[in-house]
User: What shape does this take?
Amino acid sequence: MVKLSVIVPFYNVQQYAPDTLKSLRANARDDFEFILVDDCSRDETPDILARAERELPGAVHVRHEQNGGLATARNTGIDAAQGEYLTFLDGDDWLAPGYYEQLLASIEGLGCDFVRTDHVQCTARARTIHRVPYGRRGVVLDPREAILPADRSTSVDYAYAWAGIYHRRLADRGLLHFTDGLRTAEDRPWIWKLHREAESFATVGLLGVFYRRGVASSLTQIGDVRQLDFIRAFDQVVSETAQDRDADKLLPKAVRTYCAIISHHLGSIERFEPPVARKLKSMSAVALRRMPQDVLDDALDSMDIQRATRLRRLRRRPAPAGVSA
Assistant: This one.
């Protein structure tokens, strides 16, 4: 029986994949499997993964014939996973030795659906610890309790799939799969769904994932049209939350977060290619008009003047014909 399945998508990360795989080797155990999903890389990544399949204990190499994006690659790994528990890692990040054994022990000891962990963010040579924004540690709780308040950072804003471990029963219930084809913000509908529909979770003060920021090929560094998938992702968050039994309580958080993300992108619009920048403005204006308007009014009233003014100005922008998200 496989105890833990680790799902690791790779796409054109030949520079970083050897470090990732080396850290997986330092976490190998007889009952662990590492599902290495190559999302149709065009560099040397496929050769690196082919060697890893031979040399890394528990490695399973899966290759996409077409690039599908991170969400689709993770779904491929979930479908292939045999483990009682699942977790994720990105192909340009790495782990501390023995981290997965500690992570597994934490969820087995707590007996909950999923556990969320802290991580170390790495930008060049700088190292910064990022904590799950929830104060109670090592206590099993209802995940819905960690969604609010609306005006503070909460567990649904800490959306990193690799910062945690998940029981297989969540996959069996359809709660671990991502929305196919989302190129960015794929973890936002996913984390909201987990917190709305899972039955139990906990946070633990365990450090072991090293998250590499500033990678040139990362979508967070590329201002092309794929970045605009955040609109489709947050449309899904708002739509699904509106159907929740506690929609009146939870929608303000979903709408306020959506507004904050739109404002963030508008505030750094110069990094987008000019046609994409124009499309960002148009699609964001339409997205604001799709939101529940009374909830949007309250969200804007609760934000700082700079962000609220930026969004109100965008809200008044005429909708171009044929523009949609």
The chain has a mean pLDDT of 94. The radius of gyration is 20 Å. The longest strand covers residues 4-10.
